[in-house]
Amino acid sequence: VLAFFVLLCHALLPAASTKAQEPPLDPRFGAVEAFRDPVAATEAGVAWDRILFYWSELQPSGPEDWNGYHVPDDWLQRAVQDGREVVGLLKHTPAWATDGTEGCGVPRGLDLPIDDPGNTWAAFVRRTVSIYGDRIHRWIIWNEPDIEADTYGNEWCGSMEAYYQLLKVAYLAAREVDPGAKIHLAGLTFWHDRDYLDRFLGHAVQDPTGPDHGYYFDAVSLHIYFQTESVPFIINEARAALRARGIEKPIWVNETNASPDSDPEWPLVRPRWRVSLEEQSSFLLQSFALALSSGAERVAVYKLMDTGLPPGGEPFGLIRPDWSRRPAYEAYKLIATHYAGTQVARAERYPLYEVVTLQKEVGSTRVMWARTGSEVSVALPAGGAQARLINQTGAEQAIEPVEGSYRVTLPGARCADEYLGCIIGGRTFLL
Q1: Dist CA 341 CA 72 (whole Å)
Q2: What is the pLDDT of residues 334-371, one digit of tens each?
Q3: d(CA 331, CA 339)
Q4: Three-class DSSP category at 20
Q5: Are 321 and 309 in contact (CB under 8 A)?
Q6: CB contact at 8 A, 249 and 242
Q7: Residue 52 is inside which H or E element, if any?
Q8: Beta strand pairing status for 405-410 and 376-381?
Q9: What pLDDT, in 10s, does the model give residues 50-102?
């Protein structure tokens, strides 16, 4: 019985060799704020980073301000040096630019032409892209606008229609400066407003200028947390909303993770979402595999490192504030190494367990975990004379098929959440 998460990779080399060649960096796998520890990011195989550009920090006092220290060039130069793409996220209205609430208020002059100086948002986007557009070509416009006002986490106090105008202005202003700029929808939480994307798209298709500009966005962004099986569900819901309107766009999972509440190095008390350090690792391995099998173009963990975290704050980082690494850091390295090069991903769900097959140009990796609290034994057809088993710490061993199958026992999930039970699958195996 293998009582740990295992990665089983088909060995197409002779049986005596169990060490696989290091795969190239896969551009699909990212980590939010990788610049916080670029050495660790490079070691982990992080291929893209998301950096926040606070309008209120870049132009705190007026349209003539520019605080270049907010996003230092060193961060961007290091990313280029290490081969990481940077994706910028624009948000947070300064007080001088809105008649509403600082931070979440609708920018003043948003309905004016983009070349009108009174359109404060257009001027800001144009200037930002002018300064950073030689290094950043992807811009996410705002964050989680589907969280209502007066709700924890709210960042946009305008209507859905106002958000569409915000997006439209950003698209036009950015492309004036950088015709190749890609504009991404703000990351949506889904659970705060399950119909937000559908309503947004319904509004977008009413704009007669929309079709000629791809409805003013190039990708959908999703944020998916805590529940393994939410990953394919939410991605499929987003794709269905797009297709119902006759729109095809890439889907990115810009944030995914399950922060632990039982890290002895970072005590946390919260009313729900019971997650161990081991489960955080399992969640990442499961969520990234399911995102690939659901057709996500890219996936990123939120986030590489916890910084500025107050006592009792939720510890999402793969790296703690004291620079020590949580076990999930090693899980991310396994993803960047062994999920790299996937050409076709396919998920098969059974009552007691799930298998995701990641087909490569040569060979494959199968990821497996128990879906319930019950231990389950599985037999998978052998695709080679030998396979590698890799646990969540990266330790390896070679195994051989028995009667044409690799046989693996999947330990049951912990199922400790008092509301939903098995929110994360058990320690996981891949073949």
Answers
A1: 33
A2: 999 999 999 999 999 999 999 999 999 998 999 999 99
A3: 11
A4: coil
A5: yes
A6: yes
A7: strand 48-54
A8: antiparallel
A9: 999 999 999 999 999 999 999 999 999 999 999 999 999 999 999 999 999 99
